[in-house]
Amino acid sequence: MEETIKKVMLTGDRPTGRLHIGHYVGSLRRRVELQNEGGFDEMFIMIADTQALTDNAGNPQKVRDNVIEVALDYLSAGIDPSKVTIFVQSRVPQLFEFTSYFMDLVTYSRLIRNPTIKSELDMRGFGESIPTGFLTYPISQASDILMFGTTIVPAGEDQMPMVEQAQEIAHKFNALYGEVFVEPKIMLPETEASRRLPGTDGKAKMSKSLGNCIYLSDDAKTVEKKVMSMFTDPTHLTITDPGHTEGNPVFIYLEAFAKDEHFAKYLPEYKNLDELKAHYERGGLGDVTVKRFLAKVLNDTLDPIRARRHELEKDIAGVYKILEEGSAKAREKAESIAIRARRAMGLNYFENRKLIEKQQKAYNKEHEAAAKLAAYLAQSKK
Length: 382
Ligand code: ATP
Ligand code: MG
Description:
By secondary structure, the chain is mainly α. It folds into three domains: 222 residues, Rossmann fold, CATH 3.40.50.620; 91 residues, Tyrosyl-Transfer RNA Synthetase (Orthogonal Bundle); 31 residues. It contains 17 helices and five strands. The chain is elongated, with a radius of gyration of 27 Å. The model has no long low-confidence stretch (mean pLDDT 95). The structure holds adenosine-5'-triphosphate (ATP) and magnesium ion. The site of adenosine-5'-triphosphate has 18 residues, from helix 1.
């Protein structure tokens, strides 16, 4: 009987710092919604410590320390470990076994064509000293995705080339060895603003590595301070000047976070973001008013997340337990797919009775022939 494909979600984050509001709108908020809608058969969230080490080999402490921070961020954002398996990448050895096999299916030129890798290499300025592990992490990430039978990867725009790479590997593996892997699809955030949230400094992407973040765990005062010193429209010098909302990070954040209720609560002069934007573009609306509103909107969103984090921080051992149990469950799932994939590749040496028998028969035949020949020679000597 044809096996029906399960709906499986998998996403992850690198434990290189606490999670920021870019992660929240790019992926985390979606995961919580999907979890609560209950449309998936299985849901996995991975803390990618091995991937984080690819460009942090000299600073393992940073990766180590941030595993718990990312876990706390997940749980405080509303991930429920009874519905979602949260696990640590390095604790699932099957992922690395298949990274090796998948490496044989991807050429070097394909690897360096990956646009996200290209821009990340530029950003990190490795020069001639690119760690091989960093260059090949898209293959390792393909393994993370494929070894869980993932159908949907909710992630930001930068992950599109990674999911494409995983699709190609699945396709090639299946063509060579037989149907084992499901080709995954990316689920991008609905709005442009949430696909790649810019940094508070106006840089294209809010990123832990760039230090231009508002963290989910920042306190209300810090959020306010960061918002008040945000980069805005440089041509909007006085209140009366007409302003630009497009490409203006303050408005992009509002796009990603502000709901009509926020206007009713904090800025009732405007019904919604369209009205606020129109006023800013006309002129006569100052940055300070808009920023104060944004700070309130962000703090309103972050308040319950911070409160939950505060509670969770009282039981760090409990959070590690969730990760330990999640990792055990993840190993079980990955092994169930690994068994099928090894079988397809013929690596199931010890369970392949038919092959063992066939090889035995061939040897028996050889021995028989040799014995016959020996008997004949002995006979003819007489
Ligand atoms: P690093 O600088 O260490 O790479 P990062 O901030 O880029 O960290 P990742 O752990 O690489 O974060 O990304 C985790 C997830 O968050 C991915 O799905 C990614 O698409 C999403 N994401 C990260 N930054 C943003 C952003 N600024 N806007 C939208 N989504 C984002
Ligand atoms: Mg990244």
